[in-house]
Amino acid sequence: MISLAGRDILHSWSKFVLTGIGLGLLIGVTLTMAGVYRGMVDDAKALLNNSGADIWVVQQDTQGPYAESSSLRDDVYRTLLALPGISRAANVTYLTMQVRLGNTDVRAMVVGFESGQPGEPGYLVAGRQITRSHYEAVADVKTGFQLGDTIRIRRHDYRVVGLTRRMVSSGGDPMVFIPLKDAQEAQFLKDNDAILNERARTTANPTLNRPGVPGLLDAILASQNANHNVNAVLVQIAPGSEPEHVASEIRRWKHLQAFTRAQMEEILVSKLIATSAKQIGMFLVILAIVSAAIVAFIIYTMTLGKIREIAVLKLIGTRNRTIAGMILQQAMGLGLIGFMVGKTAATVWAPFFPKFVLLEPGDAVRGFIVVMLICALASTLAIRVALRVDPATAIGG
Amino acid sequence: MKGFGIHIEGLRKRYGEGDTAVDALKDVNMTVAPGEVVGLIGPSGSGKSTLLKCLGAVIEPTAGRMTLGDEVIFEDGWKIPDLRALRRDRIGFVFQAPYLIPFLDVTDNVALLPMLAGKPNGEARKRANELLDALDVGHRAKANPSQLSGGEQQRVAIARALANQPPVILADEPTAPLDSERALSVVRILNDMAQQFRTAIIVVTHDEKIIPTFKRIYHIRDGKTFEERGLGAA
């Protein structure tokens, strides 16, 4: 038996292809939306992987340093190193800001780290790691910075000495790594005018400026200008230690919050990007409904255009299931063309998105199944119409 | 009734019930022998289409008896359980317009019926090509219906009607869209095919050009048939 659907598609291939392209672009948008979500999850995991930590130690009662702000004294890491099961601990700061290069600026997450410690960029694609204590930077290639560029962060200029890749914040902003001391200044140190104003206020305060207590005012002013805070301490545990056990010891004895890798992933994926995920989910549902409506409408219209042929087919003894199969196969064929166009389109345009779009093969397979199901579902309307066609309508009168 | 292509006795068809009931067919009697072509003529609303639909097993008569070959197919209800198969295998249809399937080429339009009946594709196409050759459209076998002239399309439609070698063909104004020459050519072909395949053919027509060609004509008026000897050689 010949394939009626196949022949019809070949006969009016231009109509099918053009319709398939239209549907395909919609499917491409749907696949891209899924890719945007996957990209966000992957960015979050990349952030955790790149930090090189087993445990994140942050301010008590916070879910820092990525989901909430967290502030710790920068000597906490020393006390942590004294705990059993911890092999390395290092301070880090995170600050999302506009980093200037000439007249342009780039939104980036500025990471302050200690050279050779957890938090340092794991690998470079060009240049070298930071070797000086100040004013050198390593940037993710997505910032667009080049080796040798001079970038401005707050009050200081930094020379880009290294480039890295896939070092992004959970929001997808590329990272710029600078020495910890500089990062602490950038995050907590005020501008010169504010410092002068603060000094004037403190000096004018008789409680703090006591003539009878020499050195008090100088000490207060010095403490106001110095900064000893960091956002988190990244901890690597010793071989054989249990992360959860070590984290619970930190929580118990140091009155700090400590998150294991699994807990931090939960915070990033389930809490930080949960709203975005729901937003994307809503889009996916709407796009699926729109796709279904378009396929249903197209197949329905095509079927209405073939009512007389269907009546003739029924009159000459074609089974209902053959006619239903023809319409179903056409809907599936349209879905197949649409999916191929959509997958190709998504693959072509994904790299041009400002944030990472991760098109997973698994999503493509799931997308294909959903498209086929939607097409099958959408064809039911047309099948109903076709099955209701009275073969007697082929006979005049 | 053995030996008849189709035989109809006292066929009735009523639409609706009670006060609104309409008797479209009141007393239809008709016999068409194998190899015979008869005309069925009547004014609009006389019941021609209803009769054709009853004969084509697409609507159920209210009463009467229909015999196809030597088998009773209707008597107080259908005697054949699978009317679809009856239409496919034992009744051929030729319509006013050819109604060829636009996405199948000429061969497959004809071969579709044997394929639907379960014949292998090769065998069905062989049969289709034989019929197309017999109807002098074999050279257009690979063409699409839209590439054929009106006369060629109608010949392909006749080939399709003959594809499963049905004992009866119902032709519903098959010459309506054709000029005189082509209309007469179609009637000639129907006669030839009826002779060649021993098929009983009923031609419903208004076409004055072809009415004189029928040997026997059935008039239908107010749901009743009246037989008349025609002038034709059919």
In brief:
The complex is a heterodimer of chains A (397) and B (234). Chain A is an alpha+beta fold.
Describe this structure in words.
The complex is a heterodimer of chains A (397) and B (234). The model of chain A has no long low-confidence stretch (mean pLDDT 89). Helices cover 52% and strands 17% of the residues of chain A. In chain A, a hairpin with a 2-residue loop joins strand 7 (150-153) and strand 8 (156-164). Chain A is α+β, with helices and mostly antiparallel strands. Chain A has a domain at 4-44 and 274-394. In chain A, strands 1, 3, 4, 5, 6, 7, 8, 9, 11 and 12 form a 10-stranded mixed β-sheet that branches. In chain A, strands 2-10 form a two-stranded antiparallel sheet. Chain B has one domain (34-58, 81-229): 3-Layer(aba) Sandwich (Rossmann fold), CATH 3.40.50.300. Chain B is built from 6 helices and 10 strands, in the order E-E-E-H-E-E-H-E-H-H-H-E-H-E-E-E. In chain B, helix 3 (106-116) packs across helix 4 (121-134).
Write the layout of secondary structure elements.
The complex is a heterodimer of chains A (397) and B (234).
Chain A lengths: L3 H8 L1 H39 L3 E4 L13 E2 L2 H6 L4 E16 L2 E10 L12 E2 L8 E5 L9 E4 L2 E9 L10 E5 H9 L3 H13 L11 H10 L3 E2 L1 E6 L5 H12 L2 E4 H12 L1 H31 L2 H9 L4 H30 L11 H28 L9
Parallel strand pairs in A: 4-9, 6-8
Antiparallel strand pairs in A: 1-11, 1-12, 2-10, 3-4, 3-11, 5-8, 6-9, 7-8
Chain B lengths: L5 E10 L6 E11 L4 E5 L6 H8 L7 E6 L2 E5 L7 H8 E4 L11 H11 L4 H14 L15 H13 L5 E5 L7 H18 L2 E5 L11 E6 L2 E6 L5
Oligomer: heterodimer
| Beta-strand share of residues of chain A | 15-25%
Total helical segments of chain B: 6
| Count of distinct strands of chain A | 12
Secondary-structure arrangement, i.e. CATH architecture of chain B: 3-Layer(aba) Sandwich
The number of helical segments of chain A is 12
Order of H and E elements of chain B: EEEHEEHEHHHEHEEE
Average predicted confidence as pLDDT of chain A? 89
Helix content of chain B: 25-40%
Shape of chain A: elongated
